[in-house]
Amino acid sequence: MRFFKLETLGLADAPDLIMLEAEPEALGLEAHCAAVGKPIASAWPADARMQLSEENPGVRLTSLLGNTFNYLIVDAAVRDVIAQHCASVPIEYLPFTLIDHRGRVHSKDYFVVNPLGHRDCVDAAASDIQYLRGKVVGIRKLVLDPEKLRDAPALFRLEQKRQTYVVSQALADALRQHGFTNIPLREIPVSTTKA
Hints:
This protein is mainly beta and 195 residues long. The protein has one domain (3-117, 162-187). It is built from three helices and twelve strands; from the N terminus they run ββαβββαββββββαβ. The chain has helices at residues 33-36, 76-85, 169-177; strands spanning 3-6, 19-20, 49-51, 66-67, 72-75, 91-99, 105-115, 128-132, 135-141, 155-157, 165-168, 185-188. The strands form four sheets. It has a four-stranded antiparallel β-sheet with strand order 10-11-1-12. It has a four-stranded mixed β-sheet with strand order 3-6-7-5. Strands 2-4 form a two-stranded parallel ribbon. A hairpin with a 2-residue loop joins β8 (128-132) and β9. The longest helix is centred in the middle third of the chain and has 10 residues, at 76-85.
């Protein structure tokens, strides 16, 4: 049983790749919902737009668009693979128009993938978790609990850090086999023994 963290920054050290820095303005304060797994489809504008910033000159389109606000942003082909592996998982697929640096349409082929809810599957004893007033403020070392992973969906968020997207081995393999670009997957250790 293997699981991977899907990095929403993408390959952050590649300056030619797009790096988005702002959610759709029309969402206002509700914009955080898609970063933490809360429903937002009812507030999502029919003409949602995200614009490239002048500070990031990258223009190359990739399967995943890196961003600084913890959205999972993918093209239609990746969305379709996720949907195939997550047929019974509550997920919102939110379309938007990507606007270039000059204010012109760059692409209409992208979606914010918002897995709703979260799952407690962390092995707290094996992980290094920072708490402040009883709340998780950081995870220096993340280890998953195999018992809590039973029946885990192919894509989910961690309860302890809801901006973390976890994918199963089967979904990770499918993403790699399709040759999608800019989708860094980092394996997350799973405990082998329980105290």
